[in-house]
Design goal:
The chain is of the alpha/beta class. It contains twelve helices and eight strands. The protein has an eight-stranded mixed beta sheet, sandwiched between helices. It is globular.
C-alpha cells in the first residue's frame, strides 16, 4: 500500500489554461501506455485529492492506463488565489488536461464533486466518454452539504490549524465505515495543513454551486454508466443513484453495502473488483 508522500512523488504535472488562467495540474499516471482500451481517468471530490484512489488505481492499472488528477486548488495542483474552483471550472481543467495528454476517448471514474464534474463533461462530450462510473456523486440539488458549506465560511480561513485538523479528522475518521486507516487519514489531510492549503480549501468549499448540476441535461449522457454507490452514505444518499439511473439511459445500479461516503476507501477491494469487471464488459 503506497503512502501519500510516495504517491505525490510519483505524480507528474502540466500547465493548462482555464478561463485565461494558467494552472499547474498534478496527476498520477500508471499502467501500460500502449493498452488497447481507452485510459481510465479518476476524479476525486472535496476535501480529497487523487490519493483517494490509492487502493483502486493499482489493480485497474494491471490492465489499463490510469490517470488520476488533482483538481485545480487540490492536492499538488495550483492552490494560489485568483481562479475559479467551481465544478464548471473543473470541467474545463479536465478538458484541458485530456487535450494536453492527447486523449480522445476515455473511461471516467468520479466521486463526490468530481462526479458533478464528470456528469457535466459526459453530457457535453458524448463522443469522448466511453464508460462512466459515478460513486456517491453530487448531482441535481444534492449538495453542498453542511460540512462543506461550513468550510467555505470566511471565518474558516482564520481558525487555527488544530481546529481545521479536527474538522478534517471528523470527516475522515468518524466518516469511515469501521476503523479508519491512519495513513488514509494523514494523506487526506496533508494538502490542507499549510497556510496555502488551508486558504485553498476555504476557496474550494465556497466555490460549490448547485446550479452547475441542476442545469445538466442528464439525458444527453450516452456513456455506458455504472453507479457504484456506497449504500449507507448520508451526504450523497443512495436515492440519488436511483434518480440518476432513471435519467441516464444506459445506467446500471451497483450498491456497495457497509460503505459510507468514502466508498473507494471503505470497500476498496470490492470497489476495484466491480470496477474492473465493468471496464472489461464482464457480468458481475
Amino acid at each position: 500500500m503506497v503512502d501519500h508522500e510516495t504517491w505525490a512523488d510519483e505524480q507528474s504535472a502540466t500547465t493548462v489554461s482555464v478561463d485565461d488562467h494558467d494552472l499547474e495540474i498534478a496527476y498520477h499516471e500508471a499502467g501500460p501506455a500502449d493498452a488497447d482500451e481507452p485510459p481510465v481517468v479518476f476524479v476525486h471530490g472535496i476535501p480529497t485529492w487523487s490519493y483517494l484512489w490509492r487502493d483502486v488505481v493499482p489493480p485497474v492499472a494491471e490492465d489499463r492506463r490510469t490517470i488520476a488528477l488533482d483538481m485545480a486548488g487540490y492536492g499538488n495542483s495550483a492552490m494560489r488565489d485568483g481562479f475559479d474552483r467551481s465544478i464548471r471550472a473543473q470541467e474545463g481543467v479536465l478538458e484541458a488536461l485530456l487535450d494536453d495528454l492527447g486523449l480522445e476517448k476515455i473511461a471516467l471514474v468520479a466521486h463526490d464533486i468530481g462526479g458533478g464534474v464528470a456528469l457535466r463533461f459526459a453530457a457535453h462530450n458524448p463522443g469522448i466518454v466511453d464508460q462512466l462510473v459515478l460513486s456517491n456523486a453530487v448531482c441535481y440539488d444534492s449538495w453542498p452539504v453542511e460540512f462543506v458549506s461550513n468550510l467555505g465560511l470566511p471565518a474558516t480561513a482564520d481558525i487555527d490549524r488544530d481546529e481545521l485538523e479536527g474538522r478534517l479528522d471528523a470527516a475522515f475518521v468518524e466518516g469511515a465505515y469501521g476503523e479508519a486507516d491512519p495513513e488514509f487519514v494523514a494523506g487526506m489531510k496533508a494538502p490542507w495543513l499549510t497556510d496555502e492549503g488551508h486558504l485553498s480549501l476555504v476557496r474550494n468549499a465556497v466555490a460549490t454551486n448547485t446550479n452547475h448540476t441542476t442545469e445538466i441535461d442528464y439525458g444527453a449522457i450516452d456513456a455506458e454508466t455504472l453507479l457504484l454507490w456506497g449504500e449507507d452514505d448520508v451526504m450523497q444518499p443512495y436515492s440519488y443513484a436511483d434518480r440518476l439511473a432513471g435519467d441516464i439511459d444506459d445506467a446500471e445500479l451497483a450498491p456497495l453495502s457497509a460503505a459510507y461516503h468514502w466508498v473507494p476507501e471503505d470497500r476498496s477491494d470490492a470497489y476495484a473488483e466491480r470496477l474492473r469487471e465493468f471496464l472489461a464488459g464482464a457480468e458481475p
